[in-house]
């Protein structure tokens, strides 16, 4: 019985569309010396880039159509056509995939190379069909030619057969390709040392129990759990466990989930609009996340939020809402991560460190740093005024201090190596830290902030055009002093969080129904009241 042939993944295409040399096993013998090696090509390219191999991120259907059409036209009309598109759509976010830092740029390059290959194959096919035979009938080989050659008469030259014009490469035993490697360019300064982070650790039994909930809902691309219920110091069995679920198409996902778990949703939304209404309220009124709280399952109380993967990635990389990105700045347990959000989140964590350092004085403790990072997503949050525990940030940091250390250790070591930070030991094993508060360091911290935040700061402080080491034109925020930059960033973050929290609060009141809304708000206010008394 023949064995099962494994399906091997194909290597991803580089962001510049250059496929590089063919594998040696697929190169004709007479060409093997003419094709440069990967090492030679790398030497020719003097631009250093920081990349991390992660799964290619497919855009949602609406953006995917734009990407595919653009790639098709660029493949046909060349790079000049691409430059015109960039120039004409400089402020159109739908064409952000044309920039190398966008999460969908790898998909665009992948489709561009596919269309180029299709065009090349089609052109070769057309040229072969239109090319007339180059030899006359008199030049065709005769029966006497082989005889003359056999007799040693070299004067009679044997003409090749016309069919031999299409020369096939020599057959060789194909070697197994390398494992699938898709690349996404990360911002300058992010290297491999920043990527392995430790998140919430738990025993296999507890993890299996949390994973088992995913069997009763439609498939997801991403899932993480968080909340005080997972803290080792929390013995309150009634505490709700929080899930964040990332899906490619929320409309389709909610349609399937309504068939399986209609009781998870507010009855009026199910009757009036179903999945379409649920998705529209989350996207248009809220921040793209629909929450179903107080879901009872296996004698546990759960709350799960559903978000489109596109919105999740954009918030992690750009802080457009500073909602889910703020959650991922704190320890979480990732149960499903098909698109390696854990690796993409390194950009988010590095930005959080830079933002916190701008807001901290010249001397502080390690706990102060993690508390400032934790508080970024709560600045301006309306719930903190009346419906949240006033000691929430302190409790989160003290209860998970070791996990914060594991998450942010690579960045603190990097900044220590650059002399941005200096560490000294203390009695409680929490380091005392002093930082360089000079203007050049402040500019470096601002440059590490997400593009959306820098853009909003640039509107207030002004921008100037600079050329990066890679030759790319960038707009840098004009900074007069460190205090000015910190104050401006704080205002931008506070406004971003305030708008997001207000929108999500209104969306939540509409989507969970009156009874659950009152119940949820009552629980929150009770926690706030206990923290005040």
Beta strands, count: 12
Largest sheet: 5 strands, mixed
Overall 3D shape: globular
Spatial ordering of strands, largest sheet: 5-6-4-3-7
Low-confidence stretches: 1-8, 25-53, 134-158, 161-199
**Helix/strand-derived class?**
alpha+beta
Mean pLDDT: 77
- CA radius of gyration is 30 Å
Helix content: 40-55%
Spatial separation of the terminal alpha carbons: 75 Å
Number of helices: 20
The fraction of residues assigned to DSSP E strands is 5-15%
Describe the model.
- The protein has 533 residues and is an alpha+beta fold.
- 47% of the residues lie in helices and 12% in strands.
- The chain has helices at residues 38-44, 61-77, 79-88, 105-130, 144-150, 204-212, 250-261, 267-272, 274-285, 309-318, 324-327, 341-359, 366-375, 383-386, 392-399, 401-417, 439-447, 451-461, 482-512, 514-532; strands spanning 51-53, 183-185, 222-226, 241-247, 289-297, 300-308, 333-337, 363-365, 421-424, 432-435, 463-467, 473-477.
- The strands form four sheets. A five-stranded mixed β-sheet has the order 5-6-4-3-7. Strands 8-10-9 form a three-stranded antiparallel β-sheet.
- It starts with 37 loop residues before the first helix and ends with a helix.
């Amino acid at each position: 019985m023949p064995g099962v042939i494994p399906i091997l993944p194909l290597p991803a295409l580089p962001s510049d569309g250059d496929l590089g040399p063919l594998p040696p096993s697929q190169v004709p013998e007479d060409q093997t010396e003419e094709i440069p090696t990967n090492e030679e090509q790398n030497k020719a390219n003097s631009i250093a880039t920081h990349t991390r191999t992660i799964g290619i991120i497919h855009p949602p259907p609406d953006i995917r159509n734009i990407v595919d059409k653009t790639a098709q036209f660029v493949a046909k009309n060349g790079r000049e056509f691409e430059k015109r598109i960039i120039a004409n759509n400089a402020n159109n976010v739908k064409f952000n995939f044309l920039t190398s830092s966008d999460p969908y740029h790898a998909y665009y390059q992948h489709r561009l190379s596919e269309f180029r290959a299709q065009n090349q194959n089609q052109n070769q096919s057309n040229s072969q069909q239109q090319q007339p035979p180059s030899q006359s009938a008199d030049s065709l080989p005769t029966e006497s030619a082989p005889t003359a050659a056999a007799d040693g008469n070299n004067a009679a030259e044997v003409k090749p057969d016309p069919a031999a014009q299409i020369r096939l490469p020599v057959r060789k035993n194909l070697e197994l390709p390398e494992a699938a490697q898709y690349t996404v360019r990360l911002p300058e300064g992010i290297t491999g040392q920043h990527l392995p982070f430790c998140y919430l650790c738990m025993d296999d039994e507890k993890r299996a129990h949390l994973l088992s909930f995913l069997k009763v809902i439609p498939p997801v691309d991403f899932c993480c759990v968080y909340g005080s219920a997972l803290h080792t110091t929390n013995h309150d069995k009634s505490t709700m466990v929080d899930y964040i679920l990332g899906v490619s198409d929320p409309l389709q996902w909610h349609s399937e989930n309504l068939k399986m778990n209609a009781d998870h949703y507010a009855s009026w939304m199910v009757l009036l609009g179903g999945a379409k209404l649920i998705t529209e309220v989350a996207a248009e009124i809220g921040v793209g996340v629909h929450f179903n709280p107080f879901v009872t399952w296996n004698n546990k109380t759960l709350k799960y939020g559903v978000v489109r993967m596109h919105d999740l990635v954009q918030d992690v990389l750009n802080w457009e809402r500073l909602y889910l990105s703020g959650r991922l700045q704190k320890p979480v347990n990732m149960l499903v991560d098909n698109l390696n959000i854990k690796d993409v989140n390194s950009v988010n964590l590095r930005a959080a460190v830079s933002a916190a350092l701008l807001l901290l004085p010249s001397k502080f403790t390690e706990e102060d740093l993690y508390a400032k990072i934790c508080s970024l997503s709560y600045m301006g949050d309306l719930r903190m005024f009346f419906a949240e525990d006033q000691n929430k940030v302190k409790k989160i940091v003290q209860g998970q201090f070791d996990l914060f250390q594991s998450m942010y250790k690579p960045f603190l070591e990097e900044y220590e190596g650059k002399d941005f930070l200096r560490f000294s030991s203390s009695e409680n094993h929490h380091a005392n830290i002093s930082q360089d508060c000079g203007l050049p360091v402040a500019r470096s911290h601002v440059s590490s902030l997400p593009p959306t935040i820098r853009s909003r700061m640039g509107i207030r402080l002004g921008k100037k055009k600079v050329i990066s080491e890679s030759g790319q034109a960038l707009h840098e925020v004009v900074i007069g002093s460190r205090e000015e930059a910190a104050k401006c960033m704080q205002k931008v973050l506070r406004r971003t969080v305030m708008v997001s929290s207000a929108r999500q609060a209104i969306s939540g009141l509409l989507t969970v129904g009156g009874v659950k809304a009152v119940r949820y708000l009552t629980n929150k206010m009770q926690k706030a009241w206990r923290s005040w008394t």
